[in-house]
Amino acid sequence: xxxxxxxxxxxxxxxxxxxxxxxxxxxxxxxxxxxxxxxxxxxxxxxxxxxxxxxxxxxxxxxxxxxxxxxxxxxxxxxxxxxxxxxxxxxxxxxxxxxxxxxxxxxxxxxxxxxxxxxxx
Length: 121
Known about the structure:
Elements: H1 17-34, H2 37-58, H3 64-84, H4 90-113
Helix pairs in contact: 1-2, 2-3, 2-4, 3-4
């Protein structure tokens, strides 16, 4: 008798990333709308990290660290738009830019300190 009935190597494993993407977006939106700095930064970090993990897992990115840069660049542009344009919401723009800076820093640290070989699953 099988320890895990119904599972075999021919079926794809379920990915946990869509759940975290789906949680990160509303958490970040609530933080941005109500001006809650930690909530908006945390939600954007959850969204950005999950999007990078999903891109790596599906094969669109060679490493998850490059995916972090791909998420950090539009977030930095959005944060700058909130700070420097007529929208006039600098506190919320700084929160978005802070999340972009953290994602970019994580991408740099991961690129510099991660092993060069891809992990085996």
